[in-house]
């Protein structure tokens, strides 16, 4: 899985984010099963600033994890059956998904595997108190150069618009 954190932050350290899948009452790690999914998620949140934060150094970590009991939500149709409004899933309206995350933690799940709101992949949200140190391991790390990433994404969009295959 993939996770991006600020350079000075420990990548395996969870915190109560109060984000899409946690109400802020327990520690979580937000990760993505795809590298691009992780990049899209963090870029979205950094882009919400009035000015994109140029001094923050982001590090992309590849992490291996051993889960035991993960709630799996395969697609948007399954989200809908849980009472999530799929048309606004990508918004910052988190009430229903936080309720699901809270219930999943209460019922003893170690995390949630759910569709990313930013990229066609699955995100894995880990409830950190369910894991022993041996269950999580950083496999590799690399800096994220946001300017380069945005240039690459813009080039891919232009190629798609022209109908050319992307590199």
The count of helical stretches stands at 4
In the sheet with the most strands, the strands line up as 2-6-5-4
Total count of domains: 1
The number of distinct β-strands equals: 7
What fraction of residues sit in β-strands? 15-25%
* Secondary-structure class: alpha+beta
- Helical percentage: 25-40%
- The general outline is globular
The low-pLDDT segments are none
What gyration radius follows from the Cα positions, in whole Å?
Answer: 16 Å
Largest sheet: 4 strands, mixed
How do the SSEs run, as a string of H and E? EEHEEHHEEEH
Fold and architecture overview:
With 167 residues, the chain is an alpha+beta fold. The chain has one domain (2-158). The chain has helices at 35-47, 76-81, 95-106, 146-162, and strands at 2-6, 28-32, 58-65, 70-72, 111-115, 122-127, 136-144. The chain has a 4-stranded mixed sheet. The chain starts with a strand and ends in a 5-residue tail after the last helix. The mean pLDDT is 94.
Short description:
By secondary structure, the chain is α+β, with helices and mostly antiparallel strands.
Features:
167 residues; single chain; globular; alpha+beta; three-stranded antiparallel sheet
Outline the fold blueprint.
Elements: E1 2-6, E2 28-32, H1 35-47, E3 58-65, E4 70-72, H2 76-81, H3 95-106, E5 111-115, E6 122-127, E7 136-144, H4 146-162
Parallel strand pairs: 4-5
Antiparallel strand pairs: 1-3, 2-6, 3-7, 5-6
